[in-house]
Amino acid sequence: MAAVPNLSAASDDAFRDLLNPAFRERCVACHGAAGKPSGGVNLAALESHVDLDADPELVRDLVNALDSGLMPPRGAPPLPGEQREELVAELRRVLHRAARSLEAYPRTPIRRMNRFQYNNAVQDLFELKVDVFALPERMLRDYDYFHPGTGKMPAQLKAGSRPLGKSQLIDRRLAGVAPFPQDLRAEHGFDNRGDHLTLSPLLLESFLKLSRSIVESEDFNSLTVGVWDRLFLPPTEAGEIEPAVRESLRGFLTRAFRRTVSDDLLARYTDHATARIVDGASYAEGMKAAVSAALASPRFLYLYEHGGLGRERVDDFELASRLSFFLWGGLPDRQLLHLAADRKLGDDQVLAAQVDRMLDDVRLKRFCDSFAPQWLQLERIVSSVPDPDRYPDFYFAKFRMSMHMMMEPLLLFETVLVEDRSILELIDPDFSYRSEALASWYRDGTRPAKVPPTAVPFKRVALADRREGGVITNAAVMTMTSNPVRTQPVTRGAWLASVIFNDPPDPPPASVPPLPEDGDESVDPDQTLRERFEAHRSDPGCAGCHAKIDPLGFALEHFGPTGVWRDQYANGREVDSSGVLFGRHEFTDVVEFKDAVLAEKERFARAFAAHLLSFALGREVAVTDEPAIDRIVRATAAEDFPLRAMIRQVVLSEPFRTKYNPEQRPAKPRRQAAH
């Protein structure tokens, strides 16, 4: 018990000697002034470390503002580097202490499967050799190149782009089965967020129809269904219908519902199938009635967790589901379920070994198909339409160059994952994958006369120029963050802040006018884009966000609206991509900008870990997740954050293995502000 007073005394000392003097000297003029404090933050009201501990969200905001160089604001004397580091380090200690004092992580909400997960789960359940329905959201088609167990991606491969190419139209799938509507990605998040996956009466009705259409499809047969003989063939001896139905359904329902089924539940499904057979239906028809009912059951459609009130470890079956939907986007396999039934999966060594096994399985492609494009927000390129008069080679036949562009960062992500490379290579790799058309596009913005429409050959190439490659400096991101005629530095900066640093800016005020475009009489044709923005961001209400995102966006200004390098604007003025990252890393070009990002590698690793954790849990990360995120980063820092190791640490983390069922909705932490 003696440690608590000592800790309290140390906290009091740190607040009195370090934090409070800095707040009083450098912050309260704005964040504590009479009237309405800036940002609603009243630091003058903080009287001791107890006040800080009571508001961990405020502490997190202070850490982010100081560590990113946003505070003190431009025009105010900067904090000396050593003082800034001391303040950030102490505030991080406060944040961890405050987060640990909270009893609960945010509740991982009950959530239904999204469309991608539903397709995968049905495939897993029936060992189906075809898709259930078309999935244009699966952006990168694998033409038998993805074999993660080898630990190596091939030097040459063929890939297809589903949303923009014919390849998704020729996938084998069940005839007569129509998909339910696509579940959209949450803003700054993923499409598996429980608070976004609603179930309307209309959608519920569509699930009932969908479950019947699957088993009644003409393509649902012994040739496509791997479990056909075990599930739909009648017993060889007469008079054993009911026991055969029960035993077949026991294994089926255990997989469908991701836990051992009770005798009562098994009896209901057995009676349903048996009654149909007794009434004259064939054995296969009776079984189809039962399995289609299971496909429409909330036990199949929803991921939810059992247990009482308060915070506790997930049980082994729940852990198996969290793990399989994280890495495979579908059902736990028999090995996971057997370990869960034996209550062995929760053991650290067993769990880590299962992660390694799953990372070597071909079903890992589902993680790549889901996490990577959503993290990079690549769906935005589908609606990118550069001006055809200015960029005629962007369009060919019924396709666009963006079909090739989007595959480059996705193939890079898959390579970093399969070959267990550092996530820093996502920023600055020495290789890339290029099709002939994409290589030509990077050279001069043209394409070959003939471009493959479906299976596109890609080659792994060494990059001699650090301006190229990575998830930042690729044509897909450059194109989707531009409008049809010009680059959009604010859009690019917001993308970088959200994706690379997990610090999305607030939406702009409705009163902010759009930037005047070329041809507008108010536009000086001799101005650069940077000069045009100076007037646009002079509004004090906009200055804070622009100070954060403009240096990021203008760092990429040498890349034109379709990702082709340029040294000058059309008016002959030189492009200026210089800036300062986080108030302390000056850069003059995009290579130096990459160096600045890598100098902040722990910040990038924390952001990436937060994205992974959010995707794994189907919810936003919260202040109570901060200690776990820091532990993930610390555990992988020595080897520069290998991607597989980061995934393993996410699974071993406390939030991933913990559930919380509150007695009532928790109150939002109180923000210190004037009232």
Low-confidence stretches: 1-5, 666-675
Shape: globular
- How many helices? The count is 26
Count the strands? 12
User: What topology, given as strand order, has the largest sheet?
Assistant: 2-3-9-8
Return Rg in Å: 28 Å
Strand count, sense and barrel status of the largest sheet are:
4 strands, antiparallel
Beta fraction: 5-15%
**Classification by helices and strands:** alpha+beta
Distance between the termini: 38 Å
Structure description:
- With 675 residues, the chain is α+β, with helices and mostly antiparallel strands.
- It is 45% helix and 6% strand.
- Among the domains are: 99 residues, no CATH class; 157 residues, no CATH class; 50 residues, no CATH class.
- The chain contains 26 helices and twelve strands.
- Strands 2-3-9-8 form a four-stranded antiparallel sheet.
Attribute tags:
disordered N terminus; 675 residues; 26 helices; globular; 4-stranded antiparallel sheet; alpha+beta; 12 strands; two-stranded antiparallel sheet; disordered C terminus
